[in-house]
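Dear colleague,

Thank you for sharing your sequence with our group. We've completed the structure prediction you requested, and as agreed, I am returning the results in plain text so they can be pasted directly into your records. Please verify that the sequence below matches your submission; if there's any discrepancy, let me know and we will rerun it promptly.
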Amino acid sequence: MTADHGFVLALSGGIGGAKLALGLSRVLPPGTLMVVANTGDDFEHLGLQISPDLDTLLYTLGGIDNPETGWGRRDETWTFMGALEALGGETWFKLGDGDLATHVERTRRRRAGESLSAITDDFRHRLRISSRLLPMSDDPVRTRLLTDEGWLDFQDYFVRRRCAPSVRTIVFDGAGAARPQPDFVAALADADLRMVVICPSNPLISIDPILALEGVRDALRACRAPVVAVSPIIDGRAVKGPTAKMMAELGMPVDAGSVARHYRDILDHYIIDEADLAGVGGLDAATTVTRTLMENIADREALARVVLMAGQGV
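Please find the predicted structure tokens below.
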């Protein structure tokens, strides 16, 4: 795919989505990838405004991510957390010293009146990232979960409680009033958009918040470019995170076909792992079978090429 063929728009959560976003950024010409990040995970902690999925994408695309954890910065130090613990402060959400600088600067600039989009764009330029990176909205949307322990904010469920409570309902507070990021909306109607990629992120808590914004799902249905999704499920399991557990608790079959049916109204092409070939019969979307596990940079690039070929074939 050359620059003459337009640009690609990817919808992404954190770790899994960031892996494919990096692959796409490496095989596409510079400046032809736009990544829209989930911000339903955003929250305020220790007085700081934290955007976990945006930061994972920033660090991954900027080549400074921690390859062992998938989140945070590489070669991180933890002096701040050690000092905070000694003072009896809250340490359940880990903020490394380098990572802390991101949150401090973002918070300072937000309080000075800058939008999350503007700050993110400046950060990605400073990290020499050629791909566009946008929050799904500059307005607050917060993922909350009704569990067997009552209502929990997302980070309380995901980090503090380590996904232990059983999930009964998921809501996105503020999604009805939040406006999708303007460049995101414009991209979906742009004649130069070649395809939309739904990265292998948790469909329930990483992609659904984006789709819950007013007009986004309708814009994807109307979009002339094909929508290609990569399954986050391999052989009945999620590579990382609570996707499979949450699907089971919400009564969804834990398989690749279930995710495709979740996207059925917007999906043109679906990419599944070789282990799931037998479980995706009867889907409306065209299907490509390949290796979707991304263990290294070569895997990320290879899957990105498969995604681009799938979109060209729709």
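Summary note from our side: The chain has one domain: 3-312.

Kind regards,
the structure core
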